[in-house]
Each structure stands twice: as structure tokens, then as C-alpha cells.
């Protein structure tokens, strides 16, 4: 008989608490809960509200989705918040009444949202971005001429964080609208590097439409327009565009273009330190991850190429969670094509451990989990539970 979902939530909270070496009183205090309530939640006799679950997860420094299982659907909470994002962008030129907050405060909040995006913390973005976008929309027209480009750049970064939620959760129309607003704000930012980052994100619309040849053409135009690679920031901007171009060239079936762009990205990646540049991770490790992504894009004929790469290298823990989990999702697909069923499942579990929200919403992760269950007809309980978690049943 399946375990009760809320009992499982309580068990996960207790296990995570013990792993963090916290007592129940310590966790209750950190989460601003009564000790009796926490005890009931851990025992499975009390259902935590969404706010309570978030408070516990924050106190445990854990992703809330790691505490959820079974019918306690984390993704439904994110989707329920998408209308608020739609509403705030519909009124971006006529924001609600409220204070015009200091630029330094806005910059701090936008920086936090950018870190949530890189860490695949989509629930937190969905919860906090509508209010932040409204604050930025009030700040832009109130800014002086010298302040306006900076506020516009903050808007680009905030719109990008919101777009990550829309795109990952399948709201393609909302994603396209957010990208249009990124382009609108970038025109006021007076920074060529911002334009390059927007071009990188805009490629999502071509992926979503499966217009891969057009997407490759778009990126090649963006590379031509990108600033000359005179310093690390500019080399990273061009390199990121080449990485993206290599992947979409693979989707278009253009092996020569994929190899050419990978070679350019590799050269530029070797010239900088792996880091996040204008919101995009770039460097030698990011290029290696994209080599595997290109192999997946090109199809099963590239299995050996991707497996050779993964055999000798794995992404370091210092890389952003979303990018690392994406690597293991790609690797799982390659391993599945190679008949390495158990290895494929291990890679999916690793992706989930790194970034559960990203893994759960990734269509390939869901598709490959369903395939694994078909191949392993007498599948293990752990695979069945994973399939239930990801929605592949």
C-alpha cells in the first residue's frame, strides 16, 4: 500500500532536520513555529500550509520541493502564481501606487532573484517577482537620466528571472512576452553586453517553436553584433552565444555549424575563469556541459561522443544548480540510448538531488523516466516512486 503523502512529508522534514544536526526545538525556533506543531508535522498528523512548508524549508536551507512527495504537488503551487506574473507585465507601463524604492535596495533584490534563477528556485521567483517587477516599473520613469540605464538593466535581469519560471513551466506565451519586455528594457540600458544576454535568452522562443534554423540565424546575427572580445566580460558574452548556437545547430541537424560554434566557444571559454557573466554561466566547464548537450541535440548517433566526455569529466559543485542538473538530464538520455538503463536512472536521481524543481519540469527527464519504467517491467520501488514524483505515471 502506498505511503500517506503527508506522512512522507513529515518523514522528509525529520530526516533533513537530523542531517542538519538540528533538534526539534531548534528547527521550530528557526521556522517560527510552535514545537507542538512541528512535532505533529513530523509525525504526519498535521498538514503544513504552503507558508509553513516554506518556512521550514528556509530554516533547513533546503529546496521546498525536496520535502514534498506523492500528491503534495509543488509544481501546482508555481503554476497557481503565474497569473500574478501575467498581471504585472500587462501593467508594466502603468504600475500600481506605492513608494519608489532606493536603487541599492532594488539591486539587492534583483541580485537575489538572479541567484534563485541560477539555483532553479522557481517557487521563490514566482512568489516574489510580481512585487519586485511592480517596484521596478515605478522606479524607471522616476529615475534621472543618469540613473535610468541602471534601472533598465535591473529590469532586464528581473524579467529574465520571471521568464525562467514561465518557460520551465510551459507558459510559452508568457515567456515570449517577458522576452519582448527584456528587449524593450535593454534598449534603455545602454550596454551592449545586456543586448547579448537578451539575445541568448530569446533563443528560447525558437526552441519552443522548434524553429531551429531560424534560431541559429538569430544567434549568428547576435554574435556579429556582440562587442569585440577585448576583456573577460565581452569574451564571455560572445562565448555564451556560441554555446547556445552550437546546441540549436545540433537541433537543426547542422553538424558542421554545431562543431564550428563549439570550437569558438571552447577557445573563448579557455580564456576566462568559469563564472556567471551578466546572468549566464560561462567558462571551460560550461562549454564541456554544452558539448554533451550538442551530442544529445544531434541524436543517438552521437552517443560515443557524449559518453567519452562524461567518462572523463563531471561538472564541479561550484557551478549553478540549474546548469549542473541539465548536464545529468542530458547524460541520462545519452545513457538510455546506449542501453545503460541503471546508469541513466542514477543520472536522473543526481539531477533531482541538485535541482529538483528543474528536473521535475524538464520534459526529457519525464519522458526518459517513463521509458525506464517500460524497460524495467519489474521496476524497483525507487524507480516507481521517482516516476510518481516526476509525473511519469
Walk me through this protein's architecture.
A two-stranded antiparallel sheet has the order 1-2. Helix 6 (103-118) packs parallel to helix 8, helix 7 packs antiparallel against helix 8 and helix 8 packs parallel to helix 10. It has three domains: 1-72, lambda repressor-like DNA-binding domains (434 Repressor (Amino-terminal Domain)); 74-190, no CATH class; 191-298. The mean pLDDT is 90. It is built from 20 helices and two strands. The chain is globular, with a radius of gyration of 22 Å. It is an all-alpha fold and 393 residues long.
Average pLDDT for all residues: 90
Using only C-alpha atoms, the radius of gyration works out to: 22 Å
* Tally of strands: 2
**Sequence stretches where pLDDT stays below 50 over 5 or more residues:** none
How many domains, as an integer?
Answer: 3
Termini distance? 17 Å
Helical coverage, percent range: over 70%
Please state roughly what percent of the residues sit in beta strands, choosing from under 5%, 5-15%, 15-25%, 25-35%, 35-45% or over 45%.
under 5%
- Please give the order of strands in the largest beta sheet: 1-2
Main sheet: strands, sense, barrel: 2 strands, antiparallel
Q: Which overall shape is indicated by the principal axes computed on the Cα atoms?
A: globular
**Assembly state of the chains shown:** single chain
Strand-pairing-aware structural class = mainly alpha
Specify the number of helices: 20
What is the H/E order?
HHHHHHHHHHHHHEEHHHHHHH
